[in-house]
Amino acid sequence: MSEAVEYDVVVLGGGPAGENIVDRTRAAGLSTALVESELVGGECSYWACVPSKALLRPALARADARRVPGLAGAVQGPLDTAAVLAHRNYWTGDWKDQGQIDWIDSIGAHVYRGHGRLYGVRKVAVTSPEGEHHILSARHAVVVATGTRAVIPDLPGIAGARPWTSREATSAQEAPGRLLIVGGSVVAAEMATAWQALGSQVTVLARGSGLLPRMEPFAGELVADALREAGAVVRTGVSVEAVVRDGSTGPVSVVLEGGETLEGDELLMATGRAPRTEDIGLDTVGLPAGRWIDVDDTCRVPGHDWLYAVGDVNHRVLLTHQGKYQARIAGAVIAARAAGTPLDTAPWGAHTPTADTRALPQAVFTDPEAAAVGLTLAEAERAGHRVRAVDYDMSKVSGAGLYADGYTGRARMIVDLDREVLLGVTFVGPGAAEMIHAATIAVAGEVPIQRLWHAVPSFPTISEVWLRLLETYRG
């Protein structure tokens, strides 16, 4: 091992959360080192958010265009799959991270490429791909931001079947003829939408009662209906018991509970995520390896006043934008503690990621899009709130009808009847993803219903649904 190099902050993991820690601690004048074993930019930039949206945007744009009179006839042909994949490759930088490295260099942080492990209190050991060894010492904080990996269930035959995970699904260089997707999650729904539009015959097999189980039930129902209309097969309440691949390049089959067999050319297992903590030295500081890292409301690990965990790895929320949000707050916390200044840890304070539990937004880029913030009806009721769900058919909004012929969508707001503020909002329909930030502001700001009446939606936009929801609530 080389002699220890000292920094104020050492960040283990260079995805969006890790990058945001680097940005905020450098802005506060702290010296910072970033350790990354793969590509700086992480899962989101190369195998998740960015490539998936590059694949999905042409599919959604074509679907929208086909609903516009005068334009529909001009867009009836297939997508140019090669062009879509090339555009996706461009947005991932062809899986090269020099642009991210250049940015980190520009703010004065230092990148160590290689596998990093905690090496006792306030230290990280790094082994580079060339076999070089470094010890990094942190004066103030070590931040774990190693993210998650896809979980592949231990089914008979799965090892030899070489299934896709989200990485292969977003980086494939050609469309499979037949794609089997196991799972009902966001990954399953979005990749079904993308590859069906790019020419694959898609079959979705969800163990639960519907797709998108973390949203209001109608969201998954509308997305499943649209997938079926596009030609995909969507089956719910089914379990896969075994997988078989015919040789090294042959088709892959799944055996369902009851013995039914389905065959495809590729199999995507969209069956959850696990923390990437199995080999990062947690045992050297008395923490269990391979598990989620518990944190307090400043993202600090209890019992370790120098150790923080941000992003997916702390299991608060597995979403890129929330990991970045946590990192901005944790960066401010680290800077404040380093300077010896008091923390503001009240709800909605500068040093507490309150939105993780009260105003969490998410957008799903299916056709129709599904977007939600805050609590669902079921979650609000389980939490003991006295609530009312207010629903509205978005096709009845003038702006929706002008946006697309045959617009299909639904909106719901969850009203806290005791305080008359919104606890949650869900929109499902074309263009819904661009509407969710207004709902996020209403939920995070706890804007009273009485005040929302004075937030006048522009006519004729889809956002006029806000007025209709309020009218429905008043009755």
Automatic annotation (TrEMBL):
Cofactor names: FAD
Domain Pyridine nucleotide-disulphide oxidoreductase dimerisation: 361-466
InterPro entries tied to this protein: Class-I_Pyr_Nuc-Dis_Oxidored, FAD/NAD-bd_sf, FAD/NAD-binding_dom, FAD/NAD-linked_Rdtase_dimer_sf, Pyr_nuc-diS_OxRdtase, Pyr_nucl-diS_OxRdtase_dimer
Domain FAD/NAD(P)-binding, chain residue ranges per copy: 7-323
Metal-binding in keyword set: no
Entry keyword annotation includes Zinc-finger: no
Sorted UniProt keywords: FAD, Flavoprotein, NAD
Family: Belongs to the class-I pyridine nucleotide-disulfide oxidoreductase family.
Protein name: Oxidoreductase
Lineage: Bacteria, Bacillati, Actinomycetota, Actinomycetes, Kitasatosporales
